[in-house]
C-alpha cells in the first residue's frame, strides 16, 4: 500500500499541530480553523471565490453532522429545567444519596454505570440518560461538574466504545479490514481495553483529587450556562408559579425514571443503536417536558413549553458555537473535503487523515515493537477527524501488513489500532466529539479535552507497551 502526499496533506498536518498548540495554551482556535479551511480550499481549487465559499459551506457541513447531538442536548437541558424548578429532580435522586456520599463514590459510580449502559446503547444516549439523573447527586456530594464529565467521558466514550463488546460495530470494522474473525480481535482487545481503562480513569481521578487539594482545579463551566447542573440558578419571571403538589411530585419522580427505563428496554428489545436510540430518548424527554410543564404552569403552560424549549436551544447552540469552526476544519480530513472542494486529492486517496496514517505506516522499519507503536500512532492520527470509526478500517489493514511482515499477532495490532483510534476520535480528546458529556454537565468541551489529555496519553503509552509484549 502506498499513497502520494500533496501540499494539501502537509498544510492540513501543519494546521493540526497549530490548533493543538493553541488548545494546550488555552487560546481560542476559531481564527486558526477558518484560516486552515480557507487555505486548503485555495490550494485545492485555485479559486478565491470557491475557497471563501468553502469556509461557509464547511460550517454548514459541520452543523449538519452535529445537529443530532445539538438537538438531544438542547432537549435534555430543557426537560431538566422544568424538573429542577418543580422539585421533581430533587425528589427523583433523593434515594441515590444513600449510596453516593463522597466525591470518590460519585466519580466511580457514575463512570461504571455509564460504562455498562454504553456497552448496550453506545455513549451518546447513555450520557443523556445518566447525566440528567445522576449529575445533581454528584454535585451535591462535592464532585465538580468537570469531574463528572470526565467520568462519563472516559468510561463511556473510552472504555465501552473502544471495546464495543455488545454491539460489536468497532471490532467488526477492524476485523474485516485485517481479514480476521471478529471474535479473535475482541479477545485480543480485552487486556488492552482493561489496561487503557484502568490507567486512564485512575490517573484522571488522581489528578482531579490532587488539583482540588492544591486549589488548582479549573471548573471549566460554560459562561452563561451550566447544563443540568445550574439550570435552577437562571430563574426567570413567572417560574415561581411552577408548583406541583407533593403527591404529584413524588408520582412524577417515579414515572419519569420508569419511562427512561422503558426506553432502555425498548433499545435492547428492538436493537436500537446510535441515532435511533438517541431519538427515542429525545422524544421521551420532549413528552415529559410538555406534560410536566402543563401540569406545573396550568394556564401558562402552552407559552412555558415554548419558553423552556428556547432555553434549551439557547444553551445548546451556545455550547456548540465555538466548536463548529474546529469541527469544520477536522471534518475536511475525511469525506467532507471531496464534498466541499471536489475530487482534488490524488485518485488513490482515502481522505487526508487516512493518507497521513498510511504514509506513517509505510515510512517506519518493520518489527513487532515498531508495529505496535505505529498501530497506536495510526489510530491516533485517524482519530483526529473526531469520528473514531472512520479510520479503524485503515488500522486493521496496517495491522495485517505489519503482522505479515514481522510474524507478530495481527489480532493484537488490530485491537491496539482500534483502541487508539476510538479513545482519541470517539470522544475523549477531540472537543466536538466529547460535547455530549460536556454539555450535559455544563462545562467547556475544550477544558474537558485538556483535563483528559494527560490521562489518555499516559494510558496509550502503557497500553502500547503491554501490546509490544503481547505481539
TrEMBL record:
Keyword Chloroplast: no
Segments passing through the bilayer: 6-24, 31-60, 66-88, 100-120, 126-143, 188-208, 252-271, 277-296, 308-332, 420-441, 453-470
Keyword Methyltransferase part of the UniProt annotation: no
Domain of life: Bacteria
Keywords, in A-Z order: Membrane, Transmembrane, Transmembrane helix
Protein name: Transporter
